[in-house]
Automatic annotation (TrEMBL):
Keywords: Acyltransferase, Cell membrane, Membrane, Transferase, Transmembrane, Transmembrane helix. It is a multi-pass membrane protein. It is found in: Cell membrane. It comes from Winogradskyella pelagia. This is MBOAT family protein. The chain crosses the membrane at residues 5-23, 43-66, 78-97, 117-139, 226-243, 327-345, 366-383, 418-435, 455-480. The keyword Nucleotidyltransferase does not apply. Belongs to the membrane-bound acyltransferase family. Coiled coil: none annotated. Pfam families: MBOAT. The keyword Cell inner membrane does not apply.
Length: 482
């Protein structure tokens, strides 16, 4: 069930009405959310509900056992059991064929032949998100950062809460879980603010992401037919497609959760206005980047290790693993590794530039934002490409003399009903709010505008969504595949 579908609108209206009709019965509210979340997820494939239920039950009981056990060895064994269950489920469904094929390719280098038993495995939607969410719960209990809950219903609702179930934000139990133990009554202010945030998310998804997708998909899927100038446009459009798509999902999830009295963490904060790669990851998919910081980078020693080589390896490992989290393909691993290289390059550049004061600080800031955007966009080539060879061919064409060819004729031949001016105007519209709310908690805030201007902004978003939505039908959110 997609947020931008008629089915979801009907589903949400029904759930919302019953939800607040039962405001004086917390247990019923949570049970309603749990059942609704299972319906929402089962809309894709009800068979995979068993994985969520297994993950929920195992981590609930393992979390309780860790919390009630004082023996360090026993606590560690229980934590390992939790990790094995979650990573085992994730590893089998997402990485089995990748590891099997990679091992076969490796041994073939030494003259050995193998006929691997590849499986036709369907990747469950959102599996990477809810497994990481439940793992952080047992890890935090093991570390003594939180106590386990004795309420199974609240825990299962926390794991499966439908707004953020399939594409995040990846919530921490310490933030989200206690909210299911508190009374939630209708709040008109929160409802209106949540609706505005969801509207902004729909605009980013339907107007920006889906319109950019038409050109980006055609260009990437037929990259051998286009010159470098068109390929540059393709990857820039993909950069805005994936941002509008993923941040749009997060905005809708945060918005509808807020309408229901639940606060979700911020997941994006104007990432394309970042001044370096480290700043980019403080602004892009914040729930995932902080997850890897707390559960991978810091346990490896983080930046506190004495050796600069060890510190550099910690950074490389963290970025590379985060790339691998996105998918079972070497292109994702290279994408993550590239970000670690960009991190080192920009760190060295920043240190050297501190002593150079030739340009005004504002110009330096703009230059840094531009360089960071170019680096991030270049890395998106590997993220979007079907294979390593596809990515390299794409890059070679960009660096060839064909980059100076006029791309207009090629774009016209694509025959899209999507008008380029719609994309340009919507990106200008996006940029105004991104710059205005660069460091705000919520990416869509117009409270400082006068009432007529605020109304005009809301109406313009609705009009843009209705009249300038992509005409190729409802398009899935990109991060559903992860």
């Amino acid at each position: 069930m997609l947020f931008n579908s008629f089915e979801f609108v009907v589903f949400f209206v029904i759930v919302f009405f019953i939800y607040y009709k039962s405001y004086n019965n917390l247990r019923f509210q949570n049970a309603l959310l749990l059942v609704s979340s299972y319906v929402f997820y089962g809309w894709w494939d009800w068979r995979f509900l068993s994985l969520i239920i297994i993950s929920s039950f195992s981590d609930y009981f393992i979390g309780r056992a860790i919390d009630l056990n004082n023996d360090k060895k026993q606590r560690k064994r229980l934590l390992v059991l939790s990790l094995l269950v979650n990573l085992g489920i994730l590893g089998f469904f997402k990485y089995y064929n990748f590891f099997t094929e990679s091992f076969t390719d490796f041994i073939s280098l030494f003259g050995f032949e193998s006929n691997p038993a590849l499986l036709n495995i369907v990747l469950p939607v959102g599996i990477s998100f809810y497994t990481f969410q439940t793992m952080s719960y047992t890890i935090d209990i093991y570390r003594g950062k939180m106590k386990s809950t004795d309420n199974l219903l609240e825990f299962m609702t926390f794991v499966s809460f439908f707004p953020q179930l399939v594409a995040g934000p990846i919530e921490r139990a310490s933030h989200l879980l206690p909210q299911f133990g508190k009374k939630r009554e209708f709040d008109l202010f929160e409802f209106k603010e949540g609706a505005k945030q969801a509207l902004w998310g729909l605009f980013k998804k339907i107007v920006i992401a889906d319109n950019c997708a038409f050109y980006a998909n055609q260009i990437f899927e037929n990259s051998e037919s286009y010159p470098g100038s068109v390929l540059v446009i393709g990857v820039v459009l993909f950069a805005f497609q994936i941002y509008g798509d993923f941040s749009g999902y997060s905005d809708i999830a945060i918005g509808i959760s807020r309408m229901m009295g639940i606060d979700l963490m911020q997941n994006f904060k104007s990432p394309y206005l970042a001044e370096n790669i480290q700043d980019f990851w403080r602004r892009w998919h914040i729930s995932l980047s902080t997850w890897f910081r707390d559960y991978v980078y810091i346990p490896l020693g983080g930046s506190k290790v004495d050796s600069s080589i060890r510190r550099s390896m910690n950074i490389i490992i963290t970025f590379t693993v985060s790339g691998f989290w996105h998918g079972a393909n070497w292109t994702f691993i290279i994408w993550g590794f590239l970000h670690s290289l960009f991190y080192f390059i920009q760190t060295g550049y920043s240190k050297n530039m501190k002593s150079v004061k030739i340009l005004p600080s504002k110009l330096v800031q703009i230059f840094n934002v531009l360089i960071t955007f170019i680096a991030v966009t270049f890395a998106w080539i590997f993220f979007r490409a079907e294979s390593f060879n596809h990515a390299m061919d794409y890059i070679f064409e960009i660096t060839s003399s064909s980059i100076i060819e006029n791309p207009v004729g090629y774009l016209k031949l694509m025959g899209s009903s999507v008008k380029p001016y719609v994309i340009i105007l919507s990106l200008i519209y996006l940029s105004i709010f991104e710059i205005n709310n660069r460091d705000a908690k919520y990416s869509f805030q117009v409270g400082h505008f006068k009432a007529p201007m605020r109304i005009l902004v809301y109406l313009s978003l609705i009009i843009l969504i209705i009249f300038f939505r992509a005409t190729d039908g409802t398009i899935d959110f990109i991060y559903f595949q992860f």
